[in-house]
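Anyone up for a design puzzle?
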């Protein structure tokens, strides 16, 4: 998961970034509203976390601008302004939540996760696929209650597969989820991560959750068999002579 933090004060930005990274989010930081709009236009973020008071515009103007541009990235305002009128203005512009400073890091983490969950269509903090369970809050993965130890990148890949269960995800989608369009490695690294993830799931007793869709990407399915499935395109049947082909039917 990746967050764009829009905060003019570097010290505050450092503290907030630390809170977000502690719950597993990658963070990009900009200081102005114009930079925020440009980043949200160019990259796919899971959340924008904005200070209301910025050097060039107010935070709600950033939200209004991206909503007018049909950018549906969830937006949370994090500000020292507590007046009800300011909050109403932020929500009217399209903000998804508003939290005031000084904030409790635990509350901030919980509310960030809640907004992201809702934006993905999940109200509960737990994602499931058969015997597999992933807890978004604690970042714990388990099979039948037994923990499965994943690296950060393996967890993020499994998280995306669960959030988009039943959908084919391209390698570009995984790269964007892992790196946010910045400093991306070669595409083949996704195959390496998938291979290692499959191996760990197999060792935990879960097989065939991750399906390879030939020439397209990967997909997570609930049904399992003995080996990972590779879905290959089916070639059109060759034309046959009328009498012999009809006789074979």
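Challenge accepted. My sequence:
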């Amino acid at each position: 998961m990746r967050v764009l933090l829009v905060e003019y004060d570097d010290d505050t930005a450092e503290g907030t970034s630390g809170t977000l990274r502690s719950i597993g989010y990658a963070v990009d930081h900009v200081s102005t509203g114009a930079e925020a709009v440009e980043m949200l236009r160019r990259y796919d973020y899971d959340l924008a976390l904005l200070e209301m008071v910025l050097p060039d515009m107010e935070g709600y103007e950033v939200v209004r601008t991206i909503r007018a541009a049909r950018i549906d990235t969830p937006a949370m305002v994090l500000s020292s302004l507590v007046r009800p009128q300011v909050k109403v203005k932020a929500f009217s512009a399209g903000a998804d939540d508003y939290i005031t400073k000084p904030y409790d890091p635990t509350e901030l983490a919980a509310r960030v996760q809640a907004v992201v969950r809702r934006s993905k269509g999940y109200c509960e903090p737990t994602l499931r696929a058969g015997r597999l369970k992933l807890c978004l809050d604690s970042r714990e993965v388990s099979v039948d209650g037994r923990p499965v130890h994943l690296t950060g990148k393996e967890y993020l890949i499994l998280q995306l597969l669960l959030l988009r269960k039943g959908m084919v995800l391209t390698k570009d989608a995984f790269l964007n989820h892992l790196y946010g369009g910045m400093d991306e490695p070669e595409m083949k690294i996704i195959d390496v991560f998938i291979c290692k993830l499959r191996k760990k799931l197999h060792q935990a007793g879960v097989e065939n959750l991750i399906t390879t869709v030939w020439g397209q990407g990967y997909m997570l399915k609930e049904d399992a068999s003995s080996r990972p499935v590779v879905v290959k395109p089916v070639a059109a049947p060759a034309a046959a002579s009328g009498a012999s082909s009809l006789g074979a039917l």
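A detail worth pointing out: The chain has two domains: 2-120, 126-220.
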